[in-house]
Amino acid sequence: MRLVLVGPPGAGKGTQAQFIASHFAIPKISTGDIFRANVSEGTELGVEARKYMDAGDLVPDEVTIGMVKDRLSQGDAQVGFLLDGFPRTVRQAEVLDELLAALLAVLDVVLELVVDDDEVVRRLSGRRTCHRCGHVWHLDFDPPTAESICDRCGGELFQRDDDREDTIRHRLEVYADQTSPLIGYYGELGLLRGVDATGPVEDVTERAINALRRFEA
Ligand code: AMP
User: Is the CB of residue 159 less than 8 Å from the CB of residue 128?
Assistant: First the structure.
């Protein structure tokens, strides 16, 4: 199955991508994760990407597209994949079509996780990540005992720069301007399926898997 997952920041794409990819035994390719790994390793690509990520802006296409092209040409992606966070613009979607055509492949389905803006701000502004072990807590949904200490390892918790409320509002504007046109693009191609992404994580996963079952090879 070749699948693209779309939805605003905070829709739970990362979490759902993990469950869906493992359910259908396909690799999860997340451009945000690849950028973050490069940022923590201090690579040239990471240094470049960070300037945009911290501001909540999109990393330029010249950087992003080459990275996705490399990843899609790797062996494990030939049987199928789940793309999380790419494409994020209609231009990127057109490039994806071209990359797949060169591999004699087509997309099977685009799954949209549907959630409104206020819920997104509530979810993202409460996220706290542990510096030491990387565990992600949430001040409302999964609170640590003390606001800034990880209960698992005692490490210090921090808020991702792009999870601050003003940056979240900006990321939502970027989504509305640049990414939401994808919904129309894939709708016209007949590839789009939407699922309600509110409520317990397991319920969203179940809805997503049910919506995708018929595309399983
Ligand atoms: P995410 O984890 O998907 O929310 O991505 C985090 C950040 O990485 C985004 O806010 C962008 O700055 C950058 N990013 C991820 N995917 C893309 C993409 N397809 N195009 C441009 N920038 C991206």
Answer: yes
